[in-house]
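Reviewers asked in the last cycle whether our approach scales beyond single polypeptides. To address this, we selected a multi-component target totalling 661 residues and predicted its structure end to end. The input consisted of the following lines:
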Amino acid sequence: MQLSREALLRAYRQMKVIREFEERLHVDIQTGEIAGFTHLYCGQEAVAVGVCEHLDNDDKIVSTHRGHGHCLAKGCDVNGMMKEIWGSRDGLCKGKGGSMHIADVDKGMLGANGIVGAGAPIAVGAGIAAKIDGKGKVAITFSGDGACNQGTTFEAMNMAVVTKAATIFVFENNHYSEHTGYQYAVGTSGDIASRAEAFGMKVWRGDGTDFFSVYETMREVLDYVRVPGNGPAAVEFDTERFFGHFEGDPQRYRGPGELDRIREMRDCLKNFRKSVTDAGLLEHSDLDALDAEVLEAIEESVRQAKAADRPTAEDVLTDVYISY
Amino acid sequence: MAKMMYRDAVVSTIAEEMERDENVVCLGEDIVGGMGTPGGPEAIGGIWSTSTGLFGKFGADRVIDTPISESAIMGAAAGLALSGKRPIAELMFADFIGVSLDQIWNQIAKFRYMFGGKTKCPAVIRMAYGAGYNAAAQHSQAVHQILTGMPGLKVVMPTTPADVKGLLRTAIRDDDPVIFLEHKALYGVSGEVPDDPDYMIPFGHARLSRAGQDVTIVSTGLLLGFCEAVADKLAAEGIGCDVIDLRTTSPLDEETILDSVEVTGRLVVVDEAPPRCSLGADICALVAEKAFASLKAPPLSVNPPHTPIPFARELESAYLPSVDKIEAAVRKVLSYR
Ligand SMILES: Cc1ncc(C[n+]2csc(CCOP(=O)(O)OP(=O)(O)O)c2C)c(N)n1
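The resulting structure, written as structure tokens, was:
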């Protein structure tokens, strides 16, 4: 653990922002004010933050339908995101994309995606661009245990190897794709990383509920991929999702007590707090202060989202080259 | 007659046909829902509840839960069909055809013709389409426009539970590939459904849901209800509308449309897909070609604008043809002479 006090506080804050942003969405979705499909990332914060804390705006990421965590970790504006999910015209994507399609290219966030498996090939393109530019930048694609079964993911892995793209395949295995278990859907082994290995990539594995495991593993992966000529790499993180597949999912596929158990034992925020306070790196009071600050920031984002301008019929016709 | 929901008409028809013919098999993502989980198989039973209970009744050989691999699902349906089975493949959202299009378009649709008529490909590809859930541009599209333009595919768009029953049974017993488009906003709608275990509706036969002399309105799916509302409103003013539910876009029931326009002389086509190269354009052209002499006004088409589907509530409702827009179009064709 070589992180400075500032870096530790920042990492915790980033994870906490994701957690509170979504816990708040979970509440506000019940009222019916937020429309559409929302997929919450809670439980997986250590992955998004452990990956993105190593990146700057010139490193690219491509996200999934469960994209809020990746977007926030990559620096998308909290208020802009909240407004987008509420469908405001001041949202990050003017209320046109919603939860599943948030993007901010200036931040190197090339988009959440409603099509499972669509992100990996896009990250290959971005990784080839990074290779051509030769500045040691990378492109990262996040894929779940479900998305890893798409042909697009396989094709992308092979093409990344062939073109020596500076692309990193981050597999977040949260054990479920919608309502199907990974041990059923990912062959009998349930092992995703070895697939990447079969394509000729160097692979890593880590505990996706432990920020330090993700952070240290990613440091190694990035040290490798940032070297010109090395080409792509892959990493699989074992993690958990705390909520249903989508908001409203009754989760009948879970085992008895499973959710309580993972909230108790596999909560990346709790685990982070315990390891930094046990090691005497931070005090509980430091983290409590951050908690309060984050809660207030999320409250503010909801206040802004509720007060923000709603889109009008004319807005349907903007941002498209022609309309009939 | 039994009253049932649109979604229950889907699952009961599949169950009845699987019972009747052991070659009928189903495949798709999460159609069992819960495979390989602590909650066990059938914890969910399909995200639209259109396969609930099938796994328990017919087992894993005939109800095949697949990984997220649309291309492999459609290819497997092709291979099953060429090997004597009658697959019913589910594409969870119609938008995902993008991923599997080669297998549908270049394979399934083309076998019979390319192989000189020696091969049949009795695959049914079911998918949920349509807007109304603020699900944005990648989960809301109406795809009949694309699929109807592909030779080799029959395209079915049921609006009522009874039509689901009669048309899905026809689709499953058909020896050609059939695209079966279920509107996701209709799954919860109830209606009377005939009990006859052989109740079938032949393809290419439209349904007249309202009868009148003054204007012909052609539509399908969710928007048909909007058209009926307009017809009912105008009926109170003494204006009569023929409201035609196409039921299948390929084959197209040209006769019913032309017969109606010959009486009314006025046509409005209402469609959920964008305007260019659309059902509206197609049917307006048909009428202009074959019933020109009967026309008292230019035929009109009501479509969403030529944009992807927006997310926010206000934007999605502005995008979709509304009762008001349809009424305005009908009044416009009535305003001629
Ligand atoms: C091409 C495509 N197929 C299916 C879906 C429906 N769908 C959305 S999320 C999902 C499960 C994805 O599972 P996984 O990749 O493990 O990600 P997780 O939801 O666990 O984060 C499915 C099947 C989709 N959106 N796109």
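Strands of chain A lie at 60-62, 139-144, 167-173, 176-177, 180-181, 202-207, 233-238. We regard this as preliminary and will revisit it once experimental data from Aim 1 are available.
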